[in-house]
Amino acid sequence: MLPREFLRENAERLLSEAPERFGGSGLERFVELDATRRENITRLEEKRRRRNELAAIKGRPDPEKLAEMKALKEEIRALEEEADRGDAELASVETRIPNAPHASVPHGEREEDNVVARTWGEPRRFDFEPAAHWDLGPALGILDFERGAKLAGARFTVLKGAGAGLSRALASFMLDLHTREHGYTEINPPSLANADSLFGTGQLPKFEEDLFRTREGLYLIPTAEVPLTSMHRDEILPAEALPIRYTGFTPCFRAEAGAAGRDTRGIIRQHQFEKVEIVMLTRPEDSYQALETLTGHAEKVLQLLSLPYRVMSVCTGDIGFSSAKSYDIEAWLPGQNLYREISSCSNCESFQARRANIRFRRGPAEKPEFVHTLNGSGLPLGRTLVAILENYQRADGSVEVPEALQAYFGGSEIRA
After folding, report:
1. What pLDDT does 261 receive?
2. Same domain, residue pair 84 and 120
3. Quick one: 188 and 311 in the same domain?
4. CA–CA separation, 78 vs 84, rounded Å?
């Protein structure tokens, strides 16, 4: 959440510079409500001051003063009720206004306006027509879309045999890399989270329709970013504890309410999937270097798997609600002849920390400050499996297992 003072002072600039992000966000309504609130407070203070003046008069007030005091009492009560309603609406509107983009974020309205920051690896040239994973997987007997739909409905898939084994190998490979080489502490959090945790990271209240909610009021986590970031909610950390680096491997659940008709084939967009997440909590002055570091850690997974990719600087109209700056990492998928997002790495600055009240203290007598929070996919298992199947396929329909995974998988190839 952005500070109220910041919104008050910068609303006009934000609406002018990034209408694609702030138009319709509630920022215009915030300006109206904030102005009305301050007017009401001024009127309320004037009425209270006059009431106190009358109450200070010694002796018995004359009928005129008594009538004025009675009228003031009613006016003050009405103004207080109006102020309470205005405060509640203002607080609600504030929670739905997205983070302000960093100055380095490119301007644009949609995904097509994202800017290539760098590329890695050369797409493989095939001497046959490469197949998409939705054909490769069933032919190998490792992806079963029909039984996934039978068990749970559309956008669910069963991984069988080598498919399940390869997914498990990927999780172990990624976790070992992030914990042993990148310095993250592994966390195994609950797969359910309360509303406070989801409010802190920005999924609630704006994106509730994308979540699965239980009868008890808990939510299935859409990403491990929620519990990993929220572990320090309402805490004041010592400065020497920063940076904090967490990684976790969890199932993730998304209703995909806004994705009707998109990516209906294959396992690119599922209601349930598994992902290794990486999260950092840093001092404010360190967060942008940390973003480069965290993004590099996600890239390293693809590099060790020899999967070509590109890094996109995400534009103002496409960055996530809580993010101030994001990089999307897109893996090359030859079976679809395009790059597809496989990771998004973001610096949320203090936006999430304000919502979750995560602070740190530089010294014993220093005032607490909000930390900066960062997160990224490091990586999702399903999309990484897709990239392996499509990039490592052979003409006979078999698939080579990347060398870095062979010890985890227990073999060098997948055959029907």
Report:
1. 65
2. no
3. yes
4. 10
Q: What is the pLDDT of residue 223?
A: 98
Q: What is the CATH number for 280?
A: 3.30.930.10
260: pLDDT strictly greater than 70: no
> 203 vs 365, which has greater pLDDT?
203
Mean pLDDT rounded to a whole number for the chain: 95
Closest CA to 408 of 304, 334, 335, 308: 304
pLDDT of residue 264: 76
Residue 130 lies in a domain: yes
Please check whether residues 245 and 334 belong to one and the same domain: yes
| Domain annotation covers residue 105 | no
- Supply φ then ψ for residue 115, to 5 degrees: -115, 135
- Identify whether residues 82 and 135 lie together within a single domain: no
Q: Among 38, 64, 94, where does a domain finish?
A: 94
The pair of structure tokens assigned to 99 is 């983070």
What are the φ and ψ backbone dihedral angles of 174, each rounded to 5 degrees?
-65, -45
Give the residue numbers annotated as catalytic, written as ranges: 254, 269, 341, 344, 383
DSSP state of 180: I
For 10-56, write each residue's pLDDT tens digit.
999 999 999 999 999 999 999 999 999 999 999 999 999 998 888 88
The partner residues of 359 in beta bridges, in order of sequence, read: 236, 370
Q: Which domain, by its residues, includes 14?
A: 4-94
Task: Give kind and range of the element (H or E) at residue 273.
Answer: strand 272-282
Q: What is the CATH number of the domain that holds 87?
A: 1.10.287
Is 99 within the bounds of a domain?
no
What are the beta bridge partners of residue 252?
273
List, in order, residues 6 or more apart from 24 with CB less than 8 Å away. none
Is residue 158 within 8 A of residue 144, CB to CB? The reply is: yes
The total of structural domains in the chain comes to 2
Mean predicted confidence (pLDDT) in 272-287: 98
**What is the token pair recorded at 128?**
């046959």
The letter for the amino acid at 327 is: Y
Cis peptide before 205 (omega within 30 of 0): yes
* pLDDT tens figures, 192-217: 999 999 999 999 999 999 999 999 99
pLDDT higher than threshold 80 for residue 263: no
Residue 281: inside a domain = yes
Last residue of a domain, one of 69, 94, 119: 94
